[in-house]
């Protein structure tokens, strides 16, 4: 069973519908203790980093997630802001600590080209390494992004996918049982669903 | 920048034949309604054709309930896995929450943004700039100047679309959706002049609409209008055209657009 963390932010319905459409047994977890009953975990999120971490702490999801994801090693996917909170800290509107699962900072997209826009909204071509989560996804497939900040990893081996902006921007990270995407697989049509399907059958 | 986008604009209105149901309609100059089908089934066709996003607008002048709109979006989002913008009748920040929790990714506001512009600032701070789309409908008058219209194009304001666009950006809008009312449904081309003036003055993405009748009109919107996205209702609903054909023509003209495979 797959559990979606509901800490009060983000478009849960779309993520839920995507897993449901793919035939997965999926539930929405409003309380941290429900995470012990699921085999895989989804951390969604849209909004500001600070609000997200505050809500995770307020609902005691941070402790439960450390227990289930780090200690017990349950396969986990973070989406968009759900990926960013896995970093050590974020510089969005101040400096705020994250879950610290990746040795990384969340920093603003910088642009030198006047024609590029922030937030970056839309479809971008993603280049990826060979890994089970991108299996069946052709190189340079388009995925849907909406973001102003991105995860800057200090250990480049954590980065498994990027897209070209001013610099190569982190599109996806992977370490042991933890996988995350900056783009929205649940909004990226067929190949987005393919990635979620790969997550459903993933055995890290 | 991200790739340029092609967006079907799905306009909803209470059915003349079944007043308990909202159906998709096409319009000409914001009237001459023609009923063309069901929101969910048409969305699935657009998804299979590789549309980049969908925009749903409730254009009914009487039936403005957010719950009806939210119900439709709820049904759409169970089967549609692409970005969805929703608007028409949004009045409060709570309406944002209702639509977002039913599967919308972005919320389009128009009349309320003019009447109570602080809603742009407040919604942007609360839900993020990326989900606040300000829809700007406008007309050119006899004095050759353009004016913003609200209430589905029925009420003239003193605002110039260019000044209003700049103000919306300053207040925290994440995207603008333009429509030249005179060109709506007329299929003779987009208003690239106003679009260009706005797109070169703001940093946020600009979606242009109103007037697409040929693939060339989309190309003109991207090249002359400098739009980030072109939205169209009539073009995709009424003609023997589809995304694959239109997209190939746009791609061949040198525009960086997604080719769906």
Would you give an account of this structure?
The complex is a heterodimer of chains A (204) and B (261). Chain A is of the alpha/beta class and 204 residues long. Chain A has one domain: Class I glutamine amidotransferase (GATase) domain (Rossmann fold). In chain A, 23% of the residues lie in helices and 33% in strands. Chain A has a nine-stranded mixed β-sheet with strand order 2-1-3-4-13-12-11-8-9. In chain A, strands 6-5-7-10 form a four-stranded mixed β-sheet, with helices on one face. The mean pLDDT of chain A is 94. Chain B has a single domain, classed as Alpha-Beta Barrel (TIM Barrel). Chain B has ten helices and twelve strands. An eight-stranded parallel barrel of chain B has the order 1-4-5-6-7-10-11-12, surrounded by seven helices. The longest helix of chain B has 12 residues. Chain B is globular. Classes of the chains: A alpha/beta (204), B alpha/beta (261).
Secondary-structure map with pairings?
The complex is a heterodimer of chains A (204) and B (261).
Chain A: E1 2-5, H1 12-21, E2 26-29, E3 40-43, H2 49-58, H3 61-71, E4 76-79, H4 81-84, E5 87-90, E6 96-97, E7 102-108, E8 120-128, E9 141-147, E10 149-153, E11 159-164, E12 168-175, E13 178-181, H5 189-200
Parallel strand pairs in A: 1-2, 1-3, 3-4, 4-13, 5-7
Antiparallel strand pairs in A: 5-6, 7-10, 8-9, 8-11, 11-12, 12-13
Chain B: E1 5-14, E2 22-28, E3 31-37, H1 39-48, E4 54-58, H2 66-77, E5 84-87, H3 93-101, E6 106-109, H4 111-115, H5 118-127, E7 132-140, E8 146-150, E9 155-156, H6 161-171, E10 175-180, H7 192-199, E11 206-209, H8 215-223, E12 229-232, H9 234-238, H10 243-252
Parallel strand pairs in B: 1-4, 1-12, 4-5, 5-6, 6-7, 7-10, 10-11, 11-12
Antiparallel strand pairs in B: 1-2, 2-3, 7-8, 8-9
